[in-house]
Amino acid sequence: MLVLLAFIIVFHITSAALLFIATIDNAWWVGEEFFADIWRVCVNNTNCTEIDDSIQEFSTVQAVQATMILSTILCCIAFLIFVLQLFRLKQGERFVLTSIIQLMSCLCVMIAASIYTDRREDIHKNNSRLYALTSDGSYGYSFILAWVAFAFTFISGLMYLILRKRK
């Protein structure tokens, strides 16, 4: 049981780390001379432009930003609730609250990555001044980590739903 508990804790911390990296790091769309994320666009590693309300489709970018931040917060809250439930639940009860919050985190990261996947091309086309050199790029590792974090938070949420507290 101790090994299972350690695995679940490490799995959850890994999920949170993936969410932090995917949210913070600047590599959602990358190329030879540029990298872009949900916060800024950088060309030649020196010329960075913050994404603000002056660009078209800013509400789409804000939706991605908000859901990624919410996903990270929910994942951290789920971990804290799990630790509290370890000491407060009676023997044989399930970690339902932790599971629900972790699955909400999963849903948020899925929404953010899906919005970015669907709307990225429109954002780049409608803001050609900002994204002029980004046409020949590809999805970066932060974007991929967001999808991996989706899978991890989903599996973690299901594990909490199945798991029962034992001695």
From TrEMBL:
It is found in: Apical cell membrane; Cytoplasm, Perinuclear region; Golgi apparatus membrane; Membrane raft. The keyword Nucleus applies. InterPro entries: EMP-2, PMP-22/EMP/MP20-like, PMP22/EMP/MP20/Claudin, PMP22_EMP_MP20. The chain crosses the membrane at residues 63-83, 95-116, 139-163. GO terms for cellular component: apical plasma membrane; cell surface; cytoplasmic vesicle; Golgi membrane; membrane raft; nucleus; perinuclear region of cytoplasm. Coiled coil: none annotated. GO terms for molecular function: integrin binding; protein kinase binding. It is a multi-pass membrane protein. Its main location: membrane. It comes from the Eukaryota. One of its GO terms (biological process) is plasma membrane raft assembly. Belongs to the PMP-22/EMP/MP20 family. Functions as a key regulator of cell membrane composition by regulating proteins surface expression. Also, plays a role in regulation of processes including cell migration, cell proliferation, cell contraction and cell adhesion. Interacts with PTK2; regulates PTK2 activation and localization. Interacts with ITGB3; regulates the levels of the heterodimer ITGA5-ITGB3 integrin surface expression. Interacts with P2RX7 (via C-terminus). Interacts with ITGB1; the interaction may be direct or indirect and ITGB1 has a heterodimer form. This is Epithelial membrane protein 2. The lineage of its organism: Eukaryota, Metazoa, Chordata, Craniata, Vertebrata.
